[in-house]
Amino acid sequence: MRASLDTLKPLWRRAVQTARLLIGVPDYDTYVQHMRLHHPQRPVMSYEEFFNERMQARYRGGGGRCC
Description:
3 helices
């Protein structure tokens, strides 16, 4: 039983991420990983800052990608 739960966990995370992308909710965990990997010198926004920034970028017509 434990092995099957361990197998389902990554699938569940991917399904949640896909659903968020489909409805336009940004993925904070992906942002944090990206910042730590590609921009370690820059501070990481809090979830609230990140969400507000993404919503502003989405609804003002900005692209919003750094790379």
